[in-house]
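Researcher: Good morning. I'm working through a list of sequences from a screen, and I'd like to move beyond sequence-only analysis. For each chain I'm collecting a predicted structure so we can compare shapes side by side. This is the next one on the list. No need for commentary yet; just the structure.
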Amino acid sequence: MAPAPSLFYATRYCKTCKKQTTFLPVYFAVAFAGRSRRTIYYWMERGLIHWRPLPTGRRLICRESLILPTAAATRRLGIQ
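Model: Good morning. Structure tokens for this chain:
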């Protein structure tokens, strides 16, 4: 039996986006953005993407905020 979808993502209010959005665990953010785990953490450290910590210490990343850094990196590399 497959785990419940809520284990993979959470719908929360993003204070930065000012709307309800999907928050992804880091491993899904890596797949969604098509970037390495290190790149995702780099973006987090630089404030390029929005995230929120869980009480367990894990982080959930705002899916909407992943779109802009991914698009900018793609343009910079000349990838269509």
